[in-house]
Amino acid sequence: MKKLALSLAVAAAPFIAQAETIEIEKPSFYGKLNVTQEFVQPENAGNYSQLNSNASRLGLKGKIALDHGLTGIYQIEYQVQADDGASGLTQRNTFAGVKGEFGEVIVGMFDTPFKAAQNKIDLFNDLQGDIKNVITNSENRAKNSVQYTSPNMGGAVVTVDHINSEDEDTNNGLSASVAYTLEDIYLAAAYDNEVEGETINAYRVVGQFTVDAIQLGALWESQDTDGESKDGWLASAQLKMNSTVALKAQFGFSDIKTEGGSTFSLGADYKLAKTAKTFVYVTQEDSDDESINATYIGGGLEYKF
To answer: What pTM was estimated for this model as a whole?
Structure first.
């Protein structure tokens, strides 16, 4: 048996020597836990409290060195419910792709360019003050997507996402954006065509700039459904008091999700470490539909790893 194994090894040696080496980096495991204790006071009902898991997630990502100056990239990400685990795992941004001097192409399920164009305008992202709750219908994570992102062209980046309907009776969707970054200035414009649904188009313009410890941002959006347009806007401000404390404020108004919708939030973050913080917030939401009017007061922890 030992002689047979040795003979096979000697015979295979020339082929092993000629085999190409593919460099596959060890993938990175990452995650985020964001949990809040929240007290809710509806306008026309009794108050209650709840523990929320806010887009907590686990993921795996990495890259593979390919021939011809290309790099393979991949990511697998799932949302977890840190409060009760009731709904199990929910798929988030998951894709495979290739990048090089031409730019980047990814396929899978991920945030649309329209959603990504908001950058960091929404200071209460994933909390009740998130723009998806009052301002917009178009914070989409589209499945069956093929997306191209251009290389950086003097600060400008173009992203186009083709969203397959996989149904002969349903039109494909298109989401696109142009973003420009110059030092502390960020500007973006985005367009959705039949992403939210057939005959529904959306437009978004975003601006953000930072001066010393102050960050200011604004977002305007319009949704057109069968020729009927509804608009919304949001303004946000953040002041870094020092290396550990940041104060935040955000206000917006929109008819897109509900007539006469408005949202106002105040909050403060306290950094516990580079990847950890605790925070408090209060959010007031109102609209012509009084059943959704409420005040939310909460505090929580966020750990990134």
So the answer is: 0.89
